[in-house]
Amino acid sequence: MTDAPGFSTLQLHAGAHDSEVDPSAAPIYQTVAYQFRNAQHAADLFAHEKEGNIYTRMGNPTQQVLEERVNALEGGAGALALASGQAAVSHSVLNLVSRGSEIISSSHLYGGTYNLFRHTLPRFGVEVHFVPPNDPEAIRARINDRTRAVFAETVANPAGTVLDFESVAGVCSEHSVPFIVDNTLATPYLCRPLSHGADIVVHSATKFIGGHGTSMGGVVVDGGTFDWTSARFPEFSEPDQSNRDIRYALDAGDVAYIARMRSQLLRDLGACISPFNAFLLLQGLETLSLRMERHVENARKLTHFLQDHPRVRNVHYPGLPNHPHRVLADRYLPRGPGSVFSFEITGGHAAAVDFIDSLRLFSHLANLGDARSLVIHPASTTHAQLSEEDMRRSGVTPELIRISVGLENLEDLKADLSRALERG
Ligand SMILES: Cc1ncc(COP(=O)(O)O)c(C=O)c1O
Questions:
Q1: Does residue 64 share a domain with residue 165?
Q2: Mean pLDDT of 303-311
Q3: Of 284, 306, 339, which one is at a domain's C-terminal end?
Q4: How far is CA 154 from CA 39, 141, 187, 271, 345, in A?
Q5: How far apart are CA 239 and CA 247, in angstroms?
Q6: Most buried one in 49, 220, 233, 254, CB count within 10 A?
Q7: CB of residue 264 inside a 6 A radius of ligand 1
Q8: How confident is the model at residue 424 (pLDDT cuts 50, 70, 90)?
Q9: Does 398 lie in the same domain as 339?
């Protein structure tokens, strides 16, 4: 076979396998530590002179298969799996900053990332500038010597904002600033940010990658193309005194970024993924392409159905012809812009919560990317902590409802929505 394997092949086969036992599925290595063959072997592992496992906080063979598989699907140089998507987002930035650093972020963000950027990072002396999505001039105006990264999401809810990769990546590369993209809602099946100019990709694997609402996990993928010898990142070229004086930009080849994250942050912050969760996320990955096709098909049909309903006002889904980002969605997500969307119903806050309470098939919970269809009222839950101004800026109104469409029969989903809408 000379050509690179296709997506469906990689989602089943990419990643290391145990060569002695040769199991068909990746085994769950439910262990904390690994036997050293002798004192020399232990010393060699600690000195990085031999490859192998020492302690599961720093790495585990089940985790490694997950890392290799997501890395192959995203087209990266290396990946690190972590305990949650939030750990992936925070590590992707913490790997680049120190006190006095600055980040520039799209203001259309998942609420947890917003909190991290708005409240937690500033406590550690890291300032985050929020800019409107897809505004290269606003980014350019904020870039200075302290800027360490630009952050955005491929598709951001609740407005269904689609990232204009070309314009944002253009400013980043002009100024040699790494571009981090959260690709959770799209997954590598619908969009591969590294091929559109991103340098680093992050995922909440808890969502569509796992796909069944059972397991937390996150992954950071290093594109391997950013030049970490740049004067903006002296710490990547200076010896790491906590790790045998390794100079990541010079000694770790094209995986300098992810090697530093694993050696320092995973070791020191301890957000390692459980081997069992890594196994379940791998199992989810095996059917990712099939599930995403059905997720998108159901979302396309349901959003059209809702758009025509007299009680529905605005449906925010970039797959609809009248969505302001439809052109961007067609360019960067030709297979479809995922299955998360939102809409407003007539009757305000009371009508919105009454509608949610009337649904029977949709699960009412705080998650997305499950095989089951999910619903939530953002203004009173996921976005309740935002100020009125920030809520308005992120497009959350009192009557807004967010849906993550699952894989059920379309007619059953329509019937459930119709019944709940007709109550009002
Ligand atoms: C876009 C996005 N990024 C990151 C996260 C955080 O992921 P996790 O809940 O796995 O920590 C979420 C969670 O909803 C998300 O939607």
A1: yes
A2: 97
A3: 284
A4: 48, 22, 9, 24, 26
A5: 5
A6: 220
A7: no
A8: low
A9: yes
Q: For 105-142, how does the pLDDT look when each residue is reduced to its tens digit (9 = 90+)?
A: 999 999 899 999 999 999 999 999 999 999 999 999 99
Q: Which atom of ligand 1 is nearest to the CA of 216?
A: 10
pLDDT digit string (tens) for 92-110? 999 999 999 999 999 999 9
Full residue range of the structural domain in which residue 83 is found: 7-284
Give 36-71 pLDDT, tens digit per residue. 999 999 999 999 899 999 999 999 999 999 999 999
Cα-Cα end-to-end distance for the chain: 59
CA distance 382 to 396: 10
Beta carbons of 82 and 88 less than 8 angstroms apart: yes
The answer to whether 420 and 355 have CB atoms below 8 angstroms apart is yes
Residue 102's DSSP bridge partners are 127, 147
Determine if ligand 1 sits within 6 Å of the CB of residue 338: no
The answer to whether residues 251 and 363 belong to one domain is: no
Name the residue type at position 94. Answer: L
What phi and psi, each to the nearest 5 degrees, are found at residue 150?
-115, 135
Same domain assignment for residues 393 and 276: no
Q: Is residue 102 domain-shared with residue 212, that is, in the same domain?
A: yes
